[in-house]
Design goal:
Chain lengths: ~240, ~400
């Protein structure tokens, strides 16, 4: 199976005033293409820091991070922007849709930065919204949508440039349980049907149980890395 | 990112805060509209003044004693009628019209109506050279009037109306006092002045009339000015200098005793003054543009802070530093350019109203309009740069975390 993400001896230190925070300590992690993973841990465990590095928003202080064999530690800011645009789809806890911009335009945005021609990105954005069941809401502004709908727009946006990885930071954190389940079903479908690698940060165990593999963090180190009941089932090898 | 996309974005951002955007533009609007209005009014005034000077008739000038250069002006420096005849004899072609400058003022009374006449002494056919006189009734002062020093007068239509209550007053007499002597003036002509900026600005209550210069001066009178219409196809400067130096030789007086003053010279002096005036007011207007630019910078800084999270989102979705920079720069420039366009429209409006009030043709200074619009874009660019850089340099993680 193809290695999508490889972290070797990865460290991250912050200087916060006078205090040096050692957020990540010697992380060695391999994620294969097509995995469905949740990252768990209490606040301050380093999971957000890991998420930022995984998402190429930040660089490690030490060690290496390979994403599809690209050494992220050595990329310039503009190259990182390009990688984020093409390789990673972000889904956030607070949805992070651009205000005063309708659903369609929000979904188009990564394609705008990816320099996709207008007609093409319009058609693709509509198709993506249709896939998440919001074809009739494409003209709506974010403040006219419910939490679950916003998160579905955000997922459609994350998929705009067809990235190999979806990074979701507490995607169900602001949602009721029904919407949470719906969102997790979308992620599951995405992973099972398209083989997209999905990595979810969560502190809710029942959300984590939707995924195949749970990596638990505490104090900047991996304390547990196990397969869930779903992950142990053999149907994983379907594609 | 595509330019068009950025422009759309900027317009929607401006629309989202209409009041704030308008107030921000106001500085630019005021700056640009005053630049346009002032430069257009200035250009209109210059145009009107040029037209006015053309209306004196081509080749108009005064030959006179150079009061500034001559230490002591003596009697023998002044011009006698004989001197003028000698000048005419020397330059028969160039001197199309020559007359000594004679002037008189008189209170007159017809019945119970009183008026004040400003009487200018002229030689024959003055109206053939000066385009300021339209004869309505009768005729202009002619050769026989001048030679006979007749007390004939040509009066403006307004004076005829006032004194006689009608326009055609040929043959009427007006009792006047010329050089201390009571004289009965016979009206031989009624004229009107073509409408112009000066007639509207002229608030004096006296009426400009014309008489033979010989009738309002003694035959042995000495004059300090000679009024001339020279050949308007030749250089005024060369002719003026030739007249002055001939008179100096003829009258055997030192060099630079005489000088000339032409309509051309006066026009260029007035234009110089108007130019400085426009420049000075333009500089003040430019300062208001500067203030407008600072307003834009201020609001863009606020906007960048408000939209920190949006910047974070955009960066996470793959916006490069330059994409963010361009986005905010274009927003600042569009603010400034919309302000500039509104300011241009308002400025033209003000100039049009001003020109209508003064009664001159509006002359739009196209180059100043172009400069104003380009300058406002430059103001947007310059003052937008700092906020846009601030936005572009944001750390995406910090920006995403911003509440």
């Amino acid at each position: 199976m193809k290695e999508l993400i490889k972290m070797q001896g990865l460290e991250k230190m912050y200087v916060n005033g006078d205090i040096e925070v050692h957020a990540l300590k010697d992380i060695n992690l391999v994620v294969n293409a097509g995995e469905f993973i949740s990252i768990m841990g209490p606040s301050g465990s380093g999971k957000s820091t890991l998420m930022n590095i995984l998402g190429c928003l930040d660089r490690p202080s030490q060690g290496r991070y390979f994403l599809e064999d690209i050494d992220i530690s050595e990329q310039s800011d503009n190259e990182l922007s390009f990688i984020r645009n093409q390789k990673i789809g972000f889904v956030f806890q607070s949805f992070n849709l651009i205000p005063r911009t309708n659903a369609l335009k929000n979904v188009e945005l990564p394609m705008v930065y990816g320099k996709i021609p207008t007609a093409q990105r319009n058609a693709r954005a509509l198709a993506l919204l249709e896939n998440v069941g919001l074809a009739d809401r494409y003209m709506h502004m974010p403040n006219e949508l419910s939490g679950g709908q916003k998160q579905r727009v955000a997922i459609a946006r994350a998929l705009a440039n067809n990235p190999p990885i979806i990074l979701a930071d507490e995607p169900t954190g602001n949602l009721d349980s029904k919407s949470s389940v719906e969102i997790m079903q979308i992620f599951t479908k995405l992973n099972r049907e398209k083989g997209t690698t999905v990595i979810i940060v969560t502190h809710e165990p029942d959300i984590a149980e939707f995924t195949d593999r749970i990596i638990s963090f505490k104090d900047g180190i991996v304390v547990e890395d196990r397969l869930t009941e779903v992950g142990k089932a053999p149907k994983k090898e379907a594609y | 990112m595509l330019l068009l996309e950025n422009i759309k974005l900027a317009i929607s951002a401006i629309k989202a805060n209409k009041m704030r955007s308008f107030l921000t533009m106001l500085g630019i609007i005021i700056g640009i509209s005053s630049v346009i209005a002032i430069s257009s009014i200035g250009a209109s005034a210059q145009g009107a003044v040029s037209k006015e000077f053309e209306s004196f008739g081509g080749g108009y000038m005064y030959l006179s004693v150079n009061w500034q250069q001559t230490e002591e002006v003596t009697q023998d420096m002044l011009f006698s009628v004989d001197d003028i005849d000698a000048l005419k004899a020397r330059f028969p072609e160039a001197l199309r019209y020559t007359a000594p400058y004679a002037y008189a003022k008189s209170d007159v009374k017809v019945g119970r109506t009183e008026a004040e006449l400003s009487i200018m002494g002229v030689a024959a056919d003055y109206n053939k050279f000066s385009t300021n006189i339209d004869i309505l009734h009768g005729r202009m002062i002619n050769k026989r009037d001048v030679e006979g020093a007749r007390d004939n007068v040509v009066i403006p239509r307004e004076a005829a109306d006032k004194l006689f209550g009608k326009e055609d007053v040929i043959g009427e007499t007006i009792a006047a006092t010329i050089m201390g002597n009571p004289v009965d003036l016979t009206v031989v002509g009624v004229y009107q002045i073509p409408a112009s900026i000066f007639t509207q600005l002229d608030t004096s209550s006296s009426y400009s009339c014309y008489m033979p210069y010989s009738a309002i001066s003694r035959s042995d009178e000495l004059f300090s000015y000679i009024e001339i219409f020279a050949d308007d196809n030749k250089s005024i400067e060369e002719q003026g200098n030739a007249f002055a130096s001939y008179m100096q030789r003829y009258k055997d007086v030192p060099e630079n005793t005489y000088t000339y003053e032409s309509a051309e010279q006066q026009l260029s002096q007035i234009n110089t003054v108007l130019g400085y005036l426009s420049l000075a007011i333009g500089a003040i207007a430019a300062i208001s543009l500067l203030v407008g630019g600072i307003g834009i910078m201020n609001i863009m800084l606020v906007s960048v802070t408000e939209r920190t999270r949006e910047i974070g989102i955009r960066k996470s979705l793959g916006a490069r530093t330059n994409d963010i920079l361009t986005q905010f720069l274009i927003e600042a420039m569009i603010l400034a350019v919309i302000g500039g366009a509104l300011g241009t429209a308002i400025g033209i409006g003000i100039a049009a109203i001003g020109a209508t009030l003064v009664g001159v043709d509006i002359v739009l200074n196209i180059s100043s309009i172009l400069i104003a619009v380009v300058f406002s874009a430059a103001v947007g660019l310059f003052f937008g740069l700092f906020p846009a850089r601030k936005a572009a340099k944001m750390d995406p993680i910090e920006a995403l975390r911003y509440e």
